[in-house]
Specification:
With 153 residues, the protein is α/β, with parallel strands linked by helices. It is built from four helices and three strands, in the order αβαβαβα. It has one domain: Leucine Aminopeptidase, subunit E, domain 1. The protein has a three-stranded parallel beta sheet with strand order 1-2-3, with helices on one face. One of its GO terms (biological process) is glutathione biosynthetic process.
Length: 153
């Protein structure tokens, strides 16, 4: 668990800017650049805070899409482990942003080996479930179309 005092200190989305580095990216130069952002997870686990942070980064930089987004786990107290359940909402929203083409690639930092393995296994299972549902829907549509076909012979 994260200390409640630590959670109270941070807003849902914290805008960090360096005054001399806020120039928007020139669209003509965009293809030659890789634009990455690192999101630091704090108390709130709302998917809207993740989406807002990505939208803000795109807006400030003047780009429609980020090439990569890394989520960094929050600072934790000694002897306390960050649970997979805490990371899942953030990761799900990042995957949604990849599907909507707002982000190209996602990753994480500051996890230990066990946490990374757990997140990987969970994400793989979610991905396989999504693919299975899509394939089932596609097969159902093909079957419905084929069963309604009459050759007229």
């Amino acid at each position: 668990q994260i200390s409640p005092d630590l959670v109270k200190e941070f807003p849902d989305v914290l805008e960090c800017t360096v005054s001399h580095a806020v120039e928007k990216i020139n669209p003509d130069e965009r293809e030659e650049m890789k634009v990455s952002a690192k999101l630091f997870i704090v108390g709130s686990n709302s998917s809207s805070s993740t989406r807002n942070a990505v939208d803000m980064a795109c807006s400030v930089l003047g780009v429609a899409q980020l090439d990569s987004v890394i989520i960094a786990s929050p600072p934790i107290e000694d002897g306390v482990n960050l649970s997979l359940e805490h990371l899942q909402p953030y990761w799900e929203e990042l995957e949604n942003l990849v599907q909507s083409k707002k982000i190209v690639a996602i990753g994480t930092s500051d996890l230990d080996k066990t946490q990374l393995e757990q997140l990987y296994q969970w994400a793989q299972n979610c991905f396989l479930k999504q693919v299975s549902k899509k394939l089932f829907r596609k097969a159902s549509l093909i079957f419905k179309h084929a069963s309604g076909y009459h050759c007229g012979c």
